[in-house]
Specification:
This protein is mainly α. The chain is built from 7 helices and no strands. Helix 4 packs across helix 6. The chain is globular. The termini are far apart. 25% of the residues are buried.
């Protein structure tokens, strides 16, 4: 059976998409279940610099957040173990950082999106830095959050 060039191109494209999906599931920021690399020293070092430049002014130099954050009113929450960051899967943390809270919550929240300022790799690096600062028990709990998100539960 002879295939037309357009059919052949379509079949190759479908095959390539299938291979990327099968071998790289979770490898893109919008679909990954475990984006963060808190044990990668180079990524964490990059994330520390990005955090200092873009995040520390609101979330605190030591991830401590702003006083009164629990009452809302636009206060930046901590990203240390005392906050709620680790209750969210990597994919949501990535989207919050890239798109901002107002976009994801229908107008609630005051954190701007950094997608126009930071690259996806910068966002992953800063989130990896944050996770690298959590105690082992919190990191394990966050890994469980990612696993539940991957299962859809």
């Amino acid at each position: 059976m002879k295939l037309s060039p357009s059919t052949l191109v379509a079949l190759i494209g479908i095959g390539a998409i299938g291979i990327v999906w099968w071998t790289g599931r979770g490898s893109t920021p919008g679909e990954a279940t475990s984006l963060l690399r808190p044990d990668d020293a180079a990524i964490v070092a990059r994330g520390e610099k990005v955090y200092a430049q873009y995040c520390a002014s609101c979330h605190g130099r030591n991830l401590e957040g702003q006083p009164g954050w629990q009452q809302g009113a636009g206060k930046a929450p901590p990203h240390d173990a005392s906050g709620h960051t680790w209750h969210h899967p990597d994919t949501l943390l990535f989207r919050i950082t890239r798109e901002g809270t107002a976009k994801l919550t229908g107008g609630r929240g005051s954190m701007p999106g950094f997608g126009g300022v930071l690259t996806d790799d910068d966002i992953i690096a800063v989130l990896s830095f944050i996770k690298s600062r959590w105690p082992d028990r919190i990191r394990a709990a966050h890994d469980a959050v990612n696993a539940r998100a991957a299962r859809g539960s």
